[in-house]
Amino acid sequence: MDKNCVIKTEHLQKEYRLGVIGTGTLRNDLQSWIAKKRGKEDPNRRIGSKEYTEGERFLALDDVNIEIYRGERVGIIGANGAGKSTLLKLLSRITSPTEGNIAYRGRIASMLEVGTGFHPELTGRENVYLNGAILGMTRAEVDKKIDDIIEFSECAQFIDTPVKRYSSGMFVKLAFAVASHLDAEIMIMDEVLAVGDMKFQRKCISKMRELAVDHNRTVLYVSHNMGTIQDLCNRCIVLDHGKKVYDGDVDEAIKLYMGGDNDEFFSYEYADDTHKNPVKRHDLNLKNVKYIGRTTNMFYDKEPLSLELGWENLEDIPSLSLRIEVQDARRIPITSYIIEDFYSGKKGETHSEQFTIDVSKIAGGRYFTRYVFYNRKSEAVAYEDIEDSAGLVFRRQMSEFHKRRWNRTWGSIRLGEILLKKE
Amino acid sequence: MDNETITYIHARNKWFNINFKELWSYRDLVLLFVKRNVTTSYKQTILGPLWIVINPLLSTSVFTVIFGVIAGISTDGMPQFLFYMSGNVLWGFFSNCLNKGSATFLGNARLFGKVYFPRLAIPVSDIMYCLLNYFIQMTMFIGLLIFFTITNPAVQPNMYICLVPVMIIQTGLLGMGVGMIISSITTKYRDLNILVSFGVSLWMYITPVVYPVSRIPDSLRTLFLLNPMAPIVESYRHAFLGSGSFEMFYWLISLAVTALIVFFGIIVFNKVEKNFIDTV
To answer: How far is CA B182 from the centre of its chain?
Structure first.
């Protein structure tokens, strides 16, 4: 194993049998076994079913080869059932592989669940010792760190109260505090940060990053929250049906995982409602969209984004407003463009209109859009959406204006430079 | 600080692969499990740890009334209460170990499913916890023994007491060994779980806990003493009370059986622990 490689898996495979394992009682299994030995039909076989001893086999992990190096923060993403948790279980030795090998260097601390082994009757302090020991710390190690742990957990006030009286948030905080103070070289986490308030989540992420960057720890993190993956990880593995389908750059991995139906399109015809959100008053039907004069959805530097939208009026439209919402790769809205009262038309008419938006302040990356049409029937009533549709993706590439490369974690909008205030 | 040890996980394991060094490095965990069991066992009870001695006192009283007074079973001339107490305390230790051992996998499935530590830490800590209870009961028994030795000339503790520690360790290991085998099998077949709950009390009746070996007909004696617990209980009582006999021959057989069961238990346990979480 390479000097800097901390985890290496070779042809890792994990197989599960579907359905009921055995028949559950010794007697039936013995019956089946004796029948098989004597060449008779299995008395426990369901009529019409396949040979039950063969079972249906299912590969939760299929030939996974991964090498992880010291100090890497690796995110593992994939849909439910892609094999993420199985992989973590194999690495943390909870179950063993059906085929293949794993080698790792140093200790692994795995947090597949927060507060594993916490006993409700014990106090916070007692649980810190117990949980620490379960995660592989010695008593002396916990002794050394107990003050840090309590401080990090923000539970100092309740530390000598049985944890059954804790709120679930405090419980998580205490549990995470223990785990993050482990001296393990490799930390494995399965979506444990999902609980706890935002402030604490951010604290956890920065703690993890600090451990990885400053102390050269290796972090493996599984989550469905692309935000935290982007914040924490510098490498990302995508699993799909037990296979590794991508390994590398975080943004690329998220893009692959999130997919996007009109991903690489520069124009699109809306044939049905698949890409639309239901609205209360569907007065307008968006039919097509295209980026004007383009054969790609990539926009460079200060290039404006021009698009043409075509629609049909399902009702009379006295006035029409449009909002173009922009979301980043994690589908978090970052900004919106608005034009108000730009059109009016009669029922049954079709129309197309060209728009331009200034995307020069949007940082490099890939963005989703939504087109939302809205109006109000009269001055007296509130505005209502009349069409809400997924829009074309656009990608931005910017040349670097500054010496240091723009980092995605700094944000998606580049507003400009800081000016010195002259007296 | 950096630990450079490389750990390998392979799909196929050797049939005997117990990492005692690793278990040793988790010794703090074993102690904390014991401590957890102690502190949580009697939380929210009024009498607390007093239950540890109340339990054998009550059951021994019942034995004395039913088997001694009503059924009139001989106690080889020993004071009945002391006679029943000696067997009862040892048997209690054995059945505790067995019960705890047989719950190792099913009872800790949640924990085992989420974090790795040497699985043997659980049975080892359970033995220690049972041993602790046993020592407390033993202290009470010794008190009774001293009282009866002074007041009743029939009670004669003898040199065989030196072998008692061996018997205690043997009892614990035997109980845990059987428990671990049962536990390993119950991950797949739940039948044994049901058997354990009443099987242990049945086992007590084929073991000389409430009667002396001298009551066994000669024709059944050999068979009877092949029960590994029988010679232990009889010899243990002989050491403290001087009643019956020290069954050296059968005890040695029992030791061999214990060693076999523990060895077998660890192998089965070791085989099952790798993947039990998939079948449990």
So the answer is: 14
Which is nearest to A142 in space by CA: B28, B120, B36? Answer: B28
How far apart (Å, rounded) are the C-alpha atoms in residues B255 and A326? 77
What torsion, rounded to 10 degrees, do the Cα atoms B192, B194, B198, B203 define? 0
Chain centre to alpha carbon of residue B124:
12
Identify from A2, A32, A94, A218 which residue to disrupt to test chain B contact, counting B C-beta atoms within 10 A and taking the largest count: A94
B61-119 pLDDT per residue, tens: 999 999 888 988 888 888 889 999 999 999 999 999 999 999 888 888 888 888 888 88
Has residue B194 been placed in a domain?
A: yes
- pTM > 0.80: no
Task: Mutate one of A23, A122, A222 to test the B interface: name it (highest B CB count within 10 A).
Answer: A122
* CATH code for the domain defined by A267-397: 2.70.50.60
Report the number of distinct structural domains present in chain B: 1
Q: Do A92 and B188 touch (CB under 8 A)?
A: no
Q: Residue B162: which domain range? A: 47-272
Alpha-carbon span A291 to B237, nearest angstrom? 95
B273 close to B106: Cβ distance less than 8 angstroms: no
Alpha helices in A154-225 (DSSP H): 168-180, 198-215
Amino acid at B32: L
How many angstroms separate the Cα of A414 from the Cα of each of A110, A398, A402, A405?
A: 38, 11, 12, 12
Query: ipTM, 2 decimals?
Result: 0.82
Unique residue bearing structure tokens 């728009």: A355
